[in-house]
Structures are given as structure tokens and as C-alpha cells.
From TrEMBL:
<keyword id="KW-0408">Iron</keyword>
<dbReference type="InterPro" id="IPR002403">
    <property type="entry name" value="Cyt_P450_E_grp-IV"/>
</dbReference>
<dbReference type="GO" id="GO:0016705">
    <property type="term" value="F:oxidoreductase activity, acting on paired donors, with incorporation or reduction of molecular oxygen"/>
</dbReference>
<dbReference type="InterPro" id="IPR001128">
    <property type="entry name" value="Cyt_P450"/>
</dbReference>
<comment type="similarity">
    <text>Belongs to the cytochrome P450 family.</text>
</comment>
<dbReference type="InterPro" id="IPR036396">
    <property type="entry name" value="Cyt_P450_sf"/>
</dbReference>
<feature type="binding site" description="axial binding residue">
    <location>
        <position position="417"/>
    </location>
    <ligand>
        <name>heme</name>
    </ligand>
</feature>
<keyword id="KW-0479">Metal-binding</keyword>
<dbReference type="GO" id="GO:0005506">
    <property type="term" value="F:iron ion binding"/>
</dbReference>
<keyword id="KW-0503">Monooxygenase</keyword>
<dbReference type="GO" id="GO:0004497">
    <property type="term" value="F:monooxygenase activity"/>
</dbReference>
<keyword id="KW-0560">Oxidoreductase</keyword>
<dbReference type="Pfam" id="PF00067">
    <property type="entry name" value="p450"/>
</dbReference>
<keyword id="KW-0349">Heme</keyword>
<dbReference type="InterPro" id="IPR017972">
    <property type="entry name" value="Cyt_P450_CS"/>
</dbReference>
<protein>
    <submittedName>
        <fullName>Cytochrome P450</fullName>
    </submittedName>
</protein>
<dbReference type="GO" id="GO:0020037">
    <property type="term" value="F:heme binding"/>
</dbReference>
Length: 469
């Protein structure tokens, strides 16, 4: 669905030129008229894509209380209440056992899944790896990967830019983590990550009751096999680094050295492995999905794509990759708007460790608090025309009127994603290189449909025509 609007130009010199445009409304599951209740546990379609189980009232009300089996859920879309859960009273809200079990099966006890002192220790050791200087130092690596991607993209037929984004971000993470020496073939690595997320990222009834041994479905078996293969390869690389006199100076070596300074050999290698899994799986998957969604949206908004390309061409004139992200204010608006419509963290769950009050309602110890950025970012009381692609939501005026806790693409509070700045710089470098090399156009009959498992991804890819410039 599209509506005619008058968009604003991103450059002051052309600000007086009014160009009509069609604001694109990407396809998404229609909210249900009624809350599905227990049906979401037994309905296979809802279990495979929880976005199809959301009721209309979730997008209209600031607070909802739900009872599912033996649990009470408090659904929050009030930014002040969200701030209390994620920041002001964060110590009272831990991650639920079900979420931790699911994440442990995928990635172990790395930073994403650690709690308490273990989490604080890991976060402290990794802080320097994601400092601004470290992010800038990685820019030439990302630019080199972008150039290889541009050389690879076909122009004689439709190309799945979701698959290309996955390959590209895997190249980036392989270079940053392992100096490009992992030895993992792209098809094998991408397939294993896909099987791992599909097999372990879907909520099943057996998990709710702690019956992990009953997960016999083919997808779960493939997920467990993929996890074993990934961990076996990475563990071998880590052991090689530990035994080397002069290992490569990359993220994994520095992480192993940091853990070794505070832990015994076995624990240091285990923690390094768990975090290698975390960053290899989550570190590329979320960025790859965001890139695919951004190109999909830009292909449906030719004017926004033209503005972003004009900015990108100017940003790359002196060829310094580290300086490029700061020169892309309009493309940054596009990226932020993409993550509003398709947040990489599409659901945040917490368990109350003690009694509290949220939105004037009592929260008891053991209750669950659920924040859906997918819903929050499309909430009728927080956004104007929330289902449409509108980068102007993030221009200076839009930003000034925004509550900090109405936009949570990477979470918020103490547990905000540590790799957020790296992901943003990586995305802006890759998008700007693609846009200077190609014009992206839709493929007739193909729309990208969102599916939520651990990540929020296009269910059938993003098919586009890439015209070389």
C-alpha cells in the first residue's frame, strides 16, 4: 500500500524543490482482531512466525496483561515503563530461564547469554574491542569486503541481496574475528548458521515444559548438528591460537589473551569459544538482515535511493573508509528507519525478581515482562503513519521529538548491544559502496515477507535487479 506525500530533500541546496513521491508500505502480517491466547503454542504457523500472533490492541495500548498457562505476562509499549525495566530498575528484571536455555543451546554462555558477575566481567574485557578507535580501524577491512561483493553481484538476472548480504557480512566477521583464516566455506558456514537459527530459535511446546529431550523434529536435529560443526571448527582454531608463539592480532586472539589473564586454560578457551559463536552467529546475521531490508525498502523508493546514492558518491571521494560513516547523515536516517520497521532485536523478555509496579499495575515476583520492538516501533500512539517507510522519522526534528525508549533496535540500558557501533559503521560502508556501484530495482511479483525466529529476516530472500552504474 502506498500513499502520496511530499518528502523533504536531504540536502539544504535543494530544500525548496518539492518532488511528489509514493511512500512505500512494506507487507507485514495483519494484527489479529483478538488475542490468540494458548492458541499460539499449538498453532504451527504462529509458532514458526510469532509476528502472526500479535493482536491489534498490542499496537494501540501502552500496557497489556496476559495469562498464558501458569505465567502472567505484562506487555509494555509505554516508553517510561520500558525505561524502568531496562535501566532504572534493571537489577530487578533478569532474563527468563526459557530464553537463557534457548540461547545456551545455540551459543553457550558468551556475553549475550551470561548473567550477573559473569556478564559484567565479559563486558569489561570486551569493551576495548568495540571502542570508537577499534571500529574505525576495521573500516578498511569492511571496504575491501564491499569491493569484492560489488565484483560478485550479477546484473544479468535477479539477485537475492539477502543471500549476498549474508555472504558479505560473513566475510567481514571472518576477517574481524579470525583474520580471514577460518577456512570455512561460505555455503557451509551460511547453511550451518541458518540451520542453527531455524532449529533452535523456534519456541516449541516441549521447551515450555522443559522437555528438551522431546525435540525430535528434523529442524531441531539439523540445528544441533550445525551447532556441533560450528563449535568444532572454532574450537580447533582457538586451540591453534593458544599454542602459537605469534598468533594473528585479531579479535579472537585478543579475546583469548584477555580471558587467559583471568581464567585457567580450559575456562579461557571455553569462554572464547562461546563468544566466538556469539559474534559469528549474531554478529553477522542481524547486520545481514538489516542490509537486505534496507535495499528492499530503497528499491521501492527511487527518490530515497537517489538521495542516498548522491550522498554516498560524495562521501567516498577521498577514499578514506573510516571517515565515510560520518558523511552519510541521510543514509543513516535510512538505516535507522529500516531498523524501526525491522528491528534486529524484535522481542525482549524479562522476569521480575521482586514485586514492582509498571503503568500503575502490580507486577509480582516471577511475572514475565515482554517488550516487542516490532510492536513498539509500529505503535499507533508513538509514530505518525507507523507502517510506512519514512526516513524523515529520524531527521533532526524527528529525533528531537522522540522518547529515547520508543526506539530500541539494539535494546537499551546496561545490556544494550555491545556491537551496535560496529554494526552501524559496517552497514553504512557496505550500503554506500553498493549504492555507488548499482541501482537497485524491484523484481515483479516478489515481496519480502518478515519472519521472526531469533532474528527478523526476509522469509524468502530479497530478489532485486542490480543495474551497474
Amino acid at each position: 500500500m502506498e500513499r502520496e506525500v511530499q518528502p523533504k530533500m536531504p540536502h539544504a541546496a535543494a530544500a525548496e524543490i518539492a518532488l511528489p513521491s509514493l511512500r512505500f508500505r512494506p507487507p507485514a502480517p495483519e494484527p489479529l482482531e483478538r488475542d490468540p491466547g494458548l492458541r499460539m503454542l499449538f498453532d504451527r504457523r504462529m509458532a514458526r512466525n510469532p509476528l502472526t500472533a500479535l493482536p491489534r490492541e498490542a499496537f494501540e495500548r501502552p500496557y497489556r496483561r496476559m495469562r498464558v498457562l501458569h505465567l502472567t505476562y505484562h506487555g509494555l509499549n509505554d516508553p517510561d515503563a520500558i525505561k524502568r525495566v531496562l535501566l532504572d530498575n534493571a537489577a530487578n528484571y533478569g532474563r527468563p530461564w526459557l530464553v537463557r536455555r534457548m540461547m545456551r543451546r545455540m551459543i553457550g554462555e558468551g556475553l549475550l547469554n551470561a548473567e550477573g558477575e559473569a556478564w559484567r566481567g565479559q563486558r569489561r574485557l570486551m569493551a576495548s574491542a568495540f571502542a570508537p578507535a577499534a571500529v574505525a580501524a576495521a573500516a578498511p577491512l569492511v571496504a575491501g569486503v564491499a569491493d569484492r561483493s560489488c565484483a560478485r553481484i550479477r546484473t544479468d538476472a535477479a539477485v537475492d541481496m539477502a543471500a549476498e548480504a549474508t555472504r558479505t557480512t560473513l566475510d567481514v566477521i571472518d576477517g574481524a574475528l579470525f583474520s580471514g583464516a577460518s577456512g570455512m566455506a561460505f555455503d557451509d558456514a551460511a547453511g550451518d548458521v541458518r540451520d542453527l537459527l531455524a532449529g533452535e530459535g523456534e519456541l516449541r511446546l516441549g521447551q515450555v515444559f522443559g522437555l528438551e529431550a522431546l525435540d525430535w523434529a528434523p529442524a531441531q536435529r539439523r540445528g544441533r548438528a550445525a551447532r556441533r560443526r560450528l563449535r568444532t571448527r572454532m574450537a580447533a582454531m582457538i586451540r591453534t591460537r593458544a599454542a602459537a608463539d605469534s598468533p594473528p592480532d585479531d579479535f579472537i586472539t585478543r579475546l583469548l589473551q584477555a580471558f587467559s589473564a583471568e581464567h585457567g586454560r580450559e575456562d579461557a578457551q571455553r569462554l572464547t569459544l562461546d563468544n566466538a559463536m556469539t559474534f559469528f552467529v549474531a554478529g553477522h546475521e542481524t547486520t545481514a538482515n538489516g542490509l537486505a531490508w534496507a535495499l528492499y525498502l530503497l528499491s521501492r523508493d527511487p527518490q530515497a535511493q537517489a538521495w542516498a546514492r548522491e550522498e554516498a558518491v560524495a562521501a567516498w571521494r577521498d577514499g578514506d573508509p573510516a571517515a565515510v560513516p560520518e558523511r552519510l547523515p541521510y543514509l543513516k536516517m535510512v538505516w535507522d528507519e529500516t531498523l524501526r520497521l525491522y528491528p534486529p532485536v524484535h522481542r525482549i523478555d524479562r522476569e521480575a525478581l521482586d514485586d514492582d509496579v509498571l503503568c500503575g499495575e502490580p507486577v509480582r515476583k516471577g511475572d514475565m515482562v515482554t517488550i516487542w520492538p516490532w510492536v513498539l516501533h509500529r505503535h499507533r500512539t508513538l509514530w505518525d503513519r507507523p507502517d510506512e517507510f519514512n526516513p524523515e522519522n529520524f531527521d533532526p526534528e524527528g529525533r528531537a521529538g522522540m522518547h529515547r525508549y520508543q526506539y530500541l533496535p539494539f535494546g537499551a540500558g546496561p545490556r544494550i548491544c555491545i556491537g551496535m557501533a560496529f554494526a552501524q559503521a559496517e552497514a553504512l560502508i557496505l550500503l554506500s559502496r553498493w549504492l555507488t556501484a548499482f541501482a537497485f530495482e524491484p523484481v515483479a511479483g516478489h515481496d519480502a515477507w518478515p519472519r521472526a525466529d531469533i532474528a527478523l529476516r526476509p522469509a524468502t530472500g530479497v530478489q532485486l535487479m542490480a543495474r551497474r552504474l
